[in-house]
## 1
Amino acid sequence: MSIALRSHPRANSALPVLAVLFACACPAFAQSPPPAPENARLEYAQVLRAEPVYQTLRATSMVERCEATTPVAEEQRRGVARWVGAVKDVLRSEDDRVEETDRSAGGDCRMVPIEREFRRPIAYDVDYVHKGVKYRSRLPYDPGNRLRVRVSVTPIVPPAGER
């Protein structure tokens, strides 16, 4: 490195100037004013109610459903099949009263769309009291019995002509 500086005479005179400029610039960066202290503190509020906000999702899937071409008599069902058939008959609505059969039994099979709805909580509307004043906020979680709140006090300074 010293060889490169000796081969360029201007580099030798520029080096001290750059060092002085760098030394002068560093304190300017180091002496930035500290952030003003904020008039805020953390306290707890009493939660009155947390009501979930739900998102409803719909999903459609295709299911193969086979119908018997000839009705299956109750006597043909034996054992567990008879019990399962009775439960299906009770749970099935009047519109769905079609006797289902296995594909191997030679029934009429077709693909039927089945739509399902899923509900999941995405947020909570929270009512809470702090120092006797009621508030409401929407939070991404259920806070439980207490809610941590940030209390900040800032004076209002009117313009110079209104003082």
## 2
Amino acid sequence: MFKMNSENKKITSKDIEIFEAKHGLHLPLEYKTFLLEFNGGYPEKSNFIISDDEGVSLVNKFYGIGEESGDLGETFEILDGEIPEGFISIADDPAGNEICLGIEESGYKEKVYFWRHDMESDSEMDNMFLLAEDFKTFLNKLYGDNDE
């Protein structure tokens, strides 16, 4: 079972609707459920495998809606043009890399990726590493359930 340490204020479905309208996007249902329950925070278990070549990292903090530190909307605006289009950063690691969620109708929708901010890339996806096919699978991997 997934456990999160969060002191963030609870949000409602209406808060999510306002967020989506303001930023012109639609969040996947599993991620909306997570926001309604936790609104970001610090996972009790946070290690994940990036890839065989890249090794492991950990979730520093999941962003929440309307939070002073780690605000999902502010992060979305700051990283606009930095991370590939069609993604929203939902968390970071201690080295300043981002855990991103596919939000656009594309081959990436609902998939979770790791974005290395300091890696040279020839195309916008060269520094993106697939972590999970969906948000729920990513959360399960934090808890050692690496079977898809």
## 3
Amino acid sequence: MKNERVIEIFKTTGVLQEGHFKLSSGLHSNQYLQCAQVLQYPVYAQELAEALAEKFKDIEIDVVVGPAMGGVTLAYAVGLALEKKTIFTEREDGKMTLRRGFRLNKGDKVLVVDDVLTTGKSINEVVEVLNQTGSELVAVGTLVDRRSKEINFEVPTESMLKVDVKAYDPKECPMCQEGLEITKPGSRYL
């Protein structure tokens, strides 16, 4: 899938939002990519998921795992495209864990899928869960890569779109200095 098509889908579904946002990382930004907007449309979600899954066609994968909340729907759609078992992790008492009877087995080869990659914190939390189960991270996939610095998961890492969205330390945030109201759209502390 070409970048132009990804951008067309994102524009059609209202993924890119403008304003003053507090990101899950604690950083502030004047733009927010709300991928849930595209994931509410199954046809677009599956089109993107199939294109993302295609990037991993030559990698042996047993299980697709997505961190709640952003990775749940996308992981399911990628798992469907790959015809693989799909589960999600979620936070319990602030710590990422497997619940609901989900299990990973020692040696399972895992593709971790999330909606947006910014700091890598959610994905690294999932990797901690994988390490505890003896399963193996073999690849990482996201809809959007908005990293401002290199994050190396030491496995193939693919995204449908790389964007350069500015993120600011709250002490240096120009929107804060202007007194603009802030919105926290992420799900890290739900």
## 4
Amino acid sequence: MKLISIILHAGKVFVFFTGCTILFYYGIMWVNEEYQNYHRYDEPEGAAIKVSGGNSSEETGMIDRLILFYLNGE
């Protein structure tokens, strides 16, 4: 009787684990489907400006870039 109870409990755990795994898999597939056609590198709309370039008129040397890297952690 105890062996049957253990087997039934193991079966419940197996079904629960399998159900959660399938739910997680289809959740990940849904997220992938949502963002598959998301174009990250399209031209921005509206009055967007580029902010990551810094001063383009100023030439920075390798030492200046290294110091900036250590200071800002870029």
